[in-house]
UniProtKB/TrEMBL annotation:
This is Uncharacterized protein. Residues 848-959 form the MHD2 domain. It comes from Perilla frutescens var. hirtella (Perilla citriodora). It comes from the Eukaryota. Residues 10-24 have a biased composition (Polar residues). PROSITE patterns: MHD1, MHD2. It holds the Pfam family TPR_PATROL1.
């Protein structure tokens, strides 16, 4: 077992750092997570172990000066501190007075500062305030039996002895010290040369100290209980030599210890219990590993009891007033503490690891304010590393080495895994000291502690190389700092259940604080960490980028797309990303790959892509709402006017409001509008408008109201029955017409416009309302400063097309307006006015059914039309009514059926009626239809009326000519084919001329039709109208 203690100064290379300010110390959280790696000794508290340690120490040092040895104390005053070079602490040559060392070899080796305290501060006064009584029976200052020497009363002060310093450091009372001295005096009578390792100290104390020497029975009981617990721990629980479980002495000792719990054991000379106790303890303590004889008793050298006692002794080197400082007398005290090695089974290797632990523990429990203690612990690890590599290593040493180094590593690593919380600008020097300490601890554990690497990697699953560990610390600490920031701001709560505005405000705030955290990392911690990691700041930036990116994804996934607040958050995230990337680039300049590897870890936020994706999703949601408007309109629209002043459908108002809101919200989004997104929105809105326009225009066609053309027949000469039939038919029509004209008895006829036709007017108003609103919306879009030039948007169209953003919808509206106007006009003329026009005009001859009654009804219907249809829509609507009316007049003349026959003499009356009809439309409204338009539309009708004035022979000739020309027949005698009915009446159309002939009440016409086409005669029956 080694007895030497060495520290190699050359091996110490821990960095030094400035001592933290008091302010930073006051703000440091209390340390509660450093526990003894050796565990607890059952039944023994730390104070009890400390008292036991002092007893072992005093016993081992009893022969040294100041402890009762034969040599008198040496005393030096301040003027006697001469040259001490060449005499190390504890060297056998010459001893200096305690407390007078100019320098300390231990402190110099560990990098610790001298206290430079005045010698008088460690001196006792002449009144003996801290004097140790030397005699167990007297209170005098000395005892010749033990050779104690004290200064004469005339001397005012003297330096404290090592024994006195040790008693004060270990907080042992004078009463306890006196009792210990008495026991040793009684034990060593005649055996002054007896070695300490042969003394079973607790047993001797139990034998020689009586209850009367204590203040009361309880104090004695507690003291006795401690001595028995020490014996139990050293002999039964933690023996240095394995103990057989069936050992009778062990069982008896356990019985005695258990019995002492209730009351004190009788330790008198005649006590059987005491004799049994002595027998058991002596037998168990003097065992040897091989069963042979031994010259050392084993009662306090079992692990971990011996280490607990020894670390309690080592802890005495710290000043009780300034706990972060080591006493200047540390050399002398350690030399004295070494005397306990044989009793406690300690060697140099165990001492080194214990000393490193004690220095480290003191650094922690004093608030981590003295970096020199950390550096000293690191210096001792150099010795520990050397010891750990020895081939012959005790299993208990390896166990202790693993436990202590693991505890130190765990505590240090915990601080480094959250260094943002544990360090600041003033205390970063401590972090700088901890890193090499941690790497040294890890290296020893990995290289010299069996199975550590496998167990640790299985537990953590990480690579333990230095660079990777620092990388792990950076990522862990910044993640913790970021998470704490998020927790303090309750961001997660806002994301889960808060308002969008609240969440976005917090995300923006977190982005700003993240930038501040990155700057803090770069300025304070990265310079320290860069010694072990080439891109420390870059790793920090990547970590923060990932942390914020996770938060951003959560925010984007949980919110409606493209709210303004969302865009602001995304833009702020983009700014943060740029600053973090710039930090990585700057930190990676010196890397071989230029930082490409670390940059690849930064998965881009892709803010622009997300915004565009969100933009598209936002547009899709708006368009979906627009389609919902269409569906709802199709289900509920009744085509009643919204109000008296808004004669259009309410569904159109809702649709326009939706479109305006969508475009306004789109422009309110605080981003630059891209052409693609704007085009996507406009096209989507146009599709919605076109679908709605198609719905409005889905009111059938004019063909639904146009009467079916009757078959072509020829007129025969009048018979008496025919004349009677004409009178009956005429009377029926006139009676019905008179009923319509009389109405409810008023002088003016009532309008015959049906509800269905009026709803068509509302459809027409709705289309014109949409037309006006779309033009206004287009103007709003055009003047918006956020809209890019629309050259590309319109490049797909023909150069001649308009430059409106809603050109497609406007074109659809124009067509729809014309279609609805046409359908409404045909319904009005051929359905609502059928009784006065096509259904009655000229039936039975012109005499009883002229156009004037129909004109009065038409005028009322046109007045109602102008009252319902908006001004903007009236011209087109009236024009379509005029066309329908002219079409009806033509059908009366050309396809009036069997009830209508004409002769050449009817022409003036028909021409006059048509002129009245024309005048109706020219005078309707205030110039809604100009006379030129009426004349142009009337040209076809006038041409047909002109045919009715021609002789039959001329008509036959003209028909034969145009029919032959149309069919391509040119030969004389060839049969003329039946001309097809085109529906486009014209005086040059053979079918039109043929129909004039069919309605001609003339023998020549009758003969031509019978001969040429074998047309049947008209049926003679009364047609009720």
């Amino acid at each position: 077992m080694g007895r030497d203690f060495r520290i190699s100064v050359s091996h110490f290379s821990a960095p030094t750092s400035p001592r933290p300010s008091q302010e930073s110390v006051n703000h440091r959280p209390p340390v509660t997570d450093l526990s003894s790696p050796l565990g607890k000794i059952d039944g023994l508290e730390r104070d009890e172990l400390r008292e036991a340690a002092y007893e072992v120490f005093f016993t081992a040092c009893r022969s040294s000066p100041g402890f009762g040895g034969r040599s008198a104390l040496s005393y030096y005053n301040s003027s006697d501190a001469g040259d001490l070079s060449g005499s190390g602490p504890g060297s056998p040559g010459k001893h200096h007075g305690v407390g007078m060392a100019v320098t300390s070899r231990v402190k110099r080796a560990l990098g610790l500062k001298m206290l430079k305290r005045s010698p008088s501060s460690r001196r006792t006064n002449s009144c003996g305030a801290v004097l140790m009584p030397s005699s167990p029976t007297t209170s005098g200052p000395s005892s010749p039996r033990f050779g104690f020497t004290a200064p004469h009363a005339s001397r005012m002060r003297r330096p404290l002895t090592s024994a006195e310093i040790m008693r004060q450091q270990m907080k042992v009372t004078e009463q306890s010290d006196n009792r210990l001295r008495k026991t040793l005096m009684r034990t060593l009578v005649g055996q002054m040369g007896r070695r300490a390792e042969t003394i079973i100290l607790p047993l001797e104390l139990l034998r020689h100290l009586k209850p009367s020497e204590f203040t009361d029975a309880n104090e004695y009981h507690m003291w006795q209980r401690r001595q028995l617990k020490i014996l139990e721990a050293g002999l039964l629980h933690h023996p240095s030599i394995p103990l057989d479980k069936t050992d009778a002495f062990a069982a008896k000792l356990r019985e005695i210890v258990d019995s002492s719990e209730q009351r004190a054991v009788d330790t008198g000379k005649n006590s059987a219990t005491m004799r049994a106790l002595c027998n058991c303890v002596v037998t168990l303590a003097w065992r040897s590993p091989d069963g042979g004889s031994t010259d050392v008793c084993h009662w306090a050298d079992g692990f971990p009891l011996n280490v607990h006692i020894y670390t309690a002794l080592l802890a005495s080197i710290f000043d009780t007033k300034e706990e972060t400082m080591v006493l200047d007398e540390v050399d002398e005290l350690i030399e004295l503490i070494k005397k306990t090695w044989t009793t406690l089974g300690i060697n140099r290797s165990v001492h080194n690891i214990c000393f490193s632990w004690v220095l480290f523990e003191q650094f922690v429990v004093t608030g981590q304010v003295e970096p020199d203690l950390l550096a000293a612990s690191f210096a001792m690890l150099t010795e520990v590393a050397s010891d750990a590599k020895k081939s012959e290593r005790d299993p208990n040493y390896l166990k202790m080495l693993a436990r202590i180094l693991t505890a130190m590593k765990k505590w240090t690593e915990t601080r480094l895994l959250d260094y943002h919380e544990n360090f600041n600008r003033e205390t970063v020097g401590l972090m700088e000291n901890m890193l090499p300490l941690l790497f040294s601890l890890t290296k020893i554990l990995e290289e010299d502690v069996p199975a550590y690497v496998a167990d640790h990697r299985m537990e953590n699953g990480t690579d333990e190389s230095t660079g990777n560990r620092v990388d792990h610390y950076i990522r862990s600490s910044l993640s913790n700092a970021f998470n704490k920031m998020v927790e303090d701001e309750d961001v997660n709560g806002a994301l889960k259940g808060g308002e969008v505005q609240e969440a976005s405000d917090l995300l923006i705030k977190v982005a700003r604080k993240t930038e501040e955290l990155a700057v803090k990392e770069k300025d304070i911690f990265s310079p320290v960490l860069k010694k072990w990691h080439p891109v420390a700041a870059g790793v920090g930036a990547v970590t923060l980028h990932t942390c914020y990116g996770t938060l951003l994804k959560q925010f984007v996934a949980g919110k409606a797309p493209l709210l303004n607040e969302t865009v602001v958050v995304l833009q702020r995230a983009g700014k943060l990303e740029k600053s973090l990337v710039q930090l990585v680039v700057e930190d990676s300049v010196e890397c071989e790959d230029g930082g490409k590897a670390i940059v690849r870890e930064m998965l881009p936020y892709e803010v622009d892509t997300i915004i565009q994706k969100q933009m598209k999703q936002w547009i899709q949601e708006r368009l979906h709402k627009g389609k919902d408007h269409i569906v709802r309109a199709k289900q509920t629209e009744t085509w009643n006017p919204k109000s008296k002043y808004e004669p259009h459908a309410n569904s159109a108002v809702e649709l326009v409001m939706f479109a305006k809101e969508a475009i306004d919200n789109f422009f309110d989004i605080p981003i630059s509008i891209t052409e693609s997104s704007f085009h996507y929105l406009v096209e989507g809105l146009q599709n919605i408008f076109r679908e709605y326009i198609a719905f409005v225009a889905s009111c059938g066609t004019k063909q639904n109201y146009t009467p079916t053309l009757p078959p072509l027949t020829r007129c025969s000469r009048d018979s008496k029955f025919l004349k009677l039939w004409k009178r009956a038919a005429c009377s029926v029509g006139v009676e019905d017409l008179n009923q319509i004209l009389s109405g409810d008895g008023s002088t003016h006829p009532r309008p015959t416009t049906s509800r269905g036709t009026q709803r068509l007017y509302i459809r027409l108003n709705t289309l014109h309302y949409l037309l006006t609103q779309l033009q206004s919306l287009d103007k709003t879009v055009s003047i918006s400063p956020k809209v890019l030039p629309n050259k590309t948007l319109f490049s797909r169209r023909k150069p001649s097309s308009s430059s409106s953003y809603f050109d497609s919808s406007l074109s659809s509206l124009q067509l729809a307006c014309h279609h609805v106007s046409e359908v409404a006009a045909y319904r009005l003329i051929f359905l609502d006015c059928s009784s006065v026009l096509y259904g009655s005009l000229y039936i039975g001859g012109l005499g009883n059914s002229r156009v004037n009654p129909a004109l009065r009804v038409l005028k009322q219907n046109l007045t109602l039309l102008c009252a319902i249809v908006t001004e903007r829509a009236q011209p087109a609507a009236l024009k379509e009514v005029m066309r329908a009316c002219f079409e009806a007049f033509l059908m009366v003349l050309l396809a009036g059926g069997s009830n209508r026959v004409f002769c050449r003499m009817d022409h003036p009356a028909i021409e006059e009626d048509f002129d009245h009809l024309k005048r109706l439309f020219c005078t309707c409204g205030e110039g809604l239809i100009v006379e030129d338009v009426v004349d142009r539309e009337a040209e076809v009708v006038q041409g047909v009326v002109a045919l009715m004035a021609q002789p039959t022979e001329q008509l036959v000739e003209d028909f034969s000519s145009v029919a032959s020309e149309a069919s391509g027949i040119g030969g004389v005698g060839q049969k003329i084919p039946m001309p097809p009915t085109t529906g486009k009446w014209n005086r040059s159309d053979p079918n039109t001329i043929l129909r004039v002939l069919c309605a001609r009440k003339d023998r020549a016409a009758n003969h031509f039709l019978k001969k040429t086409f074998q047309l049947a005669k008209r049926a003679t029956g009364i047609r009720l109208i």
